[in-house]
# Entry
Amino acid sequence: MNVKNSNFAYNNCLTCSNKTILRQCARCLSKNPSFLSDKNKKTRSKSACSLWVEKYAPNNIDSIVGNKLSVTKAKNWIKNYKSKKENTKPGLLIVGSPGIGKTTLAKILLKEFNYETVEFNASDIRNQKLLKENFKNIIGKISITSMMGVKKKIGIIMDEVDGMSSGDKGGMSELISFINPNKGLRKNKKKPLQYNNPIICISNEDFDKKINDLKKECEVLKFQKPKRSELYDLVSKICENEKLKIEDEMIFKI
# Structure
């Protein structure tokens, strides 16, 4: 497809009359893939029909777009955690607006450093009892994966921890005590941190008081939206791989 730099000629979708530069709008095309010819249907592979948001999703740390400094800090943190380096923060907290890759980074980070991932949504286990019940069977344990009986330690992702800050019954305090068992203990009762099960917390906000208490026990990363230049490079790469010729004006619209 070659899109000119001039104003686009919009038509009415043949199915629903929505405005589109194609014969049918994207919504109608996704519902009815019959616009493909029989010949194309036979030759088109399954991967080619997949959504590009899935096809080009990051599959390793280096392929994450944007936030390079934060990604590097996350990588250094988990290296130090796994090697049990002294004074390494026992938890990681990733803060940023929804949809910019926080959970994606957490999953890739644990996978690349050979941890079995267990993911919780903090809004589902926001009180002290539920959190303790879910965590007590994980902390200090090793998972036997289905792949040839390989033993892996378990890494925990706690998504939406800012949801614990409103109306919870001790959930945040319990989470902090799992991240740092020495929290609140006298100096003579504190024990060396074990660094067995990394806990990665994810939050959209970080200004609540209880989130501030969590930040004291975690390496804190601030995630921001990728730069326009980074997104431009990503879309250009996708167009090249898909053998599409699209002018810059349309790329920036995308």
